[in-house]
Specification:
Layout: H1 13-30, H2 41-58, H3 71-78, H4 82-90, H5 92-98, H6 100-157
Length: 161
């Protein structure tokens, strides 16, 4: 039985923007555009770092309900096949044992990217705390206003001046 492939639009705009941001950070760290240079070793190794960061952050190729990113999405972004992405992922450990520079860049960029997620979650939690506190303050303020209005009504109705 023939089953047509479902066309997927690619990663969500949020994930695509995050991929671009990681790409730019790595370009700065390495001093060149990691997606250029074809099969030259330094470019391929830089792409290994890029793909490994995406793997760590989004579980590339694994079916999850959250943070979905496929091998094909990454391959299309880089301009290679999904098999090449698998190869980049498989050889990352070898690269790190061979050259500590790449491991350091990987760890630095991964911590910066992960910190952004943690900071965002922390900010959202803090926002909720502040909104709850603001709601409490508004309720207390309304109570004080009502008490003041009652006090003023009683003052004027008693004939006191």
């Amino acid at each position: 039985m023939f089953r047509p492939k479902l066309k997927k639009e690619g990663p969500s705009p949020h994930i695509h923007k995050d991929m671009e941001r990681i790409h730019l950070i790595l370009n700065f760290e390495f001093g060149f555009d990691i997606l250029e240079g074809g099969k030259k070793r330094k470019y391929v190794d830089a792409r290994r770092v890029f793909v490994q960061i995406l793997q760590k952050k989004y579980n590339i190729g694994k079916i999850t309900t959250v943070k979905s990113l496929t091998l094909t999405d990454v391959a299309n972004y880089i301009g290679i096949t999904h098999a090449s992405v698998i190869n980049l992922l498989r050889n990352f450990d070898v690269l790190c044992s061979w050259d500590s520079k790449y491991k350091k860049i990987y760890e630095d960029v991964l911590s910066r990217v992960s910190d952004d997620v943690i900071k965002q979650e922390g900010l959202l939690a803090r926002k909720q705390e502040l909104l709850t506190e603001l709601e409490f303050i508004n309720e207390h303020l309304n109570i004080l206003k009502n008490e003041e209005e009652d006090k003023n009504k009683n003052f004027y109705f008693k004939g006191e001046f």
